[in-house]
Amino acid sequence: MTETRRITDVATLKAMGHPLRVRLYGDLYMRGTATASQLAESLDDGTAVSLVSYHLRKLAEHGLIEEAPAESGRDGRERWWRPAQESLRIDGADFRGSPEGAAAHTALSRIIYEQRREHYLRFVEQRSGWSEAWQDASDASDFHARLTAGELKELTEELHAVIKRYAEQGRAAEAAGDSEGRETAVVHLYGFPFRP
C-alpha cells in the first residue's frame, strides 16, 4: 500500500466521480477492509450487493482499491477489499488545462462536499447521543482572514501537518493497546477566497 496517491489523470478522476463510489471508498477507508456484502449492508438503503461489487471493481480497475490479503478465519469465498493507498490527493491544478478534467474535478468536488455535509448533519442530529465530553470537543467554526494566496497555502499546509501529527499519535496509541475512549474524529477543512 502506498502512502499518498495523487490523482492526475481524467479517467481515474471520472471513475471516482460517482456518489456511490465515493461512499464505498470512504467506508473502506474507515473500516480498513470489507467485503461487498458488508459494504452493501452498511449503506442501509437496499443497494444490491451486485451493484456494490460492480462499483468496487471499477475502483479497482483504476488502482484506487485492491484485494486485501487473505487472513486466517476469513471466508475464502468472498473478496475482501481495502484502499490501495493511505490517502488520496486530488489537486485542481492538475486539471486546469483540460475542460473535461476541470468539469470532472468540479463534479467530484461537489459529491465529496455533499457527503461531508451529510456526515456533519448526522452528527448534529445525533449530538445528544454522544457524551458531554464528545459534545464539548466537537467544533463548527468559521474564520475570515485577509490573506494572500501564498499565506492561505502556508496556513493550509500547517493545518494539515497538525492534523496528521494527531492522527499518527492516535494510530501509535492504538497499536500500543490504548484504544479506550477513542472514536473516529472527522475534520473537514475548506480554505478559499471569497468576495461578498
UniProtKB/TrEMBL annotation:
InterPro entries: ArsR-like_HTH (IPR011991), HTH_ArsR_DNA-bd_dom (IPR001845), WH-like_DNA-bd_sf (IPR036388), WH_DNA-bd_sf (IPR036390). Gene3D superfamilies: Winged helix-like DNA-binding domain superfamily/Winged helix DNA-binding domain. Residues 11-97 form the HTH arsR-type domain. It comes from the Bacteria. CDD domains: HTH_ARSR. Coiled coil: none annotated. This is Helix-turn-helix domain-containing protein. It comes from Streptomyces polyasparticus.
